[in-house]
Specification:
356 residues, mainly alpha, ABC transporter involved in vitamin B12 uptake, BtuC, two-stranded antiparallel ribbon, 2 strands
């Protein structure tokens, strides 16, 4: 059974597809980490940003709709990069609008409100046929650099593309979190009252983090849409679009982007390979086995490693553990002062003796 669980990884084509989805979900996990891991924003509506990002990138990069069975707004045939940035901007604008009434709520009420917003968006996508083609969804989403290699080898090209995007997102978020701005976010997460007493605008910083995390999730949604090439509202159900990403962050380690990536790998490994544990991949029991294994993993991590497989690193500044230069100069001046005073005293004594 164990050998069957890992046997498919010997196939490089399967491995490329597996790693591509791990990377895409890592981007989602990093976006959620900005919300919850660093700021303490209990966003349980990730699926809403997932859907908006995927649909926005699709309609920006596809050709205009044709035929009676394909109706959607847009169809601008723009480049892949523009589609991803547009997806991020659309989610950032949505987050700003949602954040105005919700970010002042307590954590539990914020979670309820975000769930409601995400499900409302999904129902709009289902019922408004002229918006994104309703339940039929959007198919034939274009892929970047598709014509440079054979179709059989394209998966390696897209793997390289999403890997580059993940590196950019990771580096950008790390630089932001290790800056004074990031330290304010952690202060808000630990104690809003103390941070506010220090003169920080809590709502403004929360809004900035909420918008940034949503922007990253929008990029993740666009990456997913261009990989699978077909999306429907059923793709963005809470189990697949929200709960799975939360599990990845909890298992990997909240407050650590490397832990978010590790959690995406661990959870997607179980989600994807559960079929190897069931005699028939079409067996309906696979869904129950998958949920059981993920539940066992979450409980085991919470009991054995409450901070996650790769928990939060306390060091957030490049100066942490180092003595600031200003402090060194002050100590040097203090050490030199007694010597200077002693030298002046000795010179005065010598002068008096000579006069005598």
């Amino acid at each position: 059974m164990i050998s069957g669980f890992f046997s498919d990884f010997l196939n490089t084509s399967y491995l490329a597809g597996f790693l591509t989805l791990v990377i895409i979900y890592s981007v989602f996990a990093i976006g959620l980490n900005v919300h919850w891991g660093y700021t303490g924003i209990f966003n349980f509506g990730v699926a809403g940003f997932f859907a908006v990002g995927a649909y926005t990138s699709a309609i920006l990069t596809k050709q205009p709709a044709t035929g009676n069975y394909m109706t959607y707004i847009g169809g601008y045939h723009l480049p892949y990069v523009v589609g991803l940035l547009g997806a991020g901007v659309a989610c950032a604008i949505l987050a700003f609008i949602i954040g105005i009434p919700t970010l002042r709520l307590r954590e539990d009420y914020l979670a309820i409100a975000s769930i409601g917003v995400a499900e409302t968006l999904r129902r709009v996508f289902i019922n408004e046929m002229g918006l994104v083609n309703g339940t039929r969804g959007i198919i034939g989403i274009p892929q970047p650099l598709h014509g440079i290699v054979d179709q059989a080898d394209y998966k390696y090209v897209y793997l390289a593309i999403v890997a580059v995007i993940l590196v950019i997102v990771y580096v950008a978020v790390e630089r932001g979190i290790r800056s004074p701005w990031g330290r304010v976010l952690r202060a808000i997460r630990e104690d809003e009252t103390t941070a506010q007493a220090s003169g920080k605008d809590i709502f403004a910083f929360k809004m900035q983090a909420f918008v940034l995390g949503a922007f990253i999730m929008g990029i993740g949604g666009g990456m997913y849409a261009h990989y699978v090439r077909a999306i429907t509202p059923d793709t963005f159900v809470p189990m697949f679009g929200t709960f799975l990403i939360w599990v990845m962050l909890i298992v990997g380690g909240s407050g650590n982007n490397k832990g978010a990536i590790l959690g995406a790998l661990a959870v997607w490994l179980i989600w994807d390979r559960t079929g190897a544990l069931v005699s028939n991949a079409q067996d309906p029991r696979i869904f129950y086995v998958r949920n059981l294994l993920i539940g066992v993993l979450v409980v085991a991590v919470l009991l054995l490693r409450p901070k996650g497989l790769w928990g939060e690193e306390k060091r957030v500044s490049v100066y942490s553990g180092k003595e600031p230069e200003r402090g060194k100069r002050a100590e040097t001046e203090e050490a030199a002062e007694p010597l200077t005073t002693s030298a002046v005293t000795t010179a005065e004594d010598a002068g008096e003796g000579g006069a005598t």
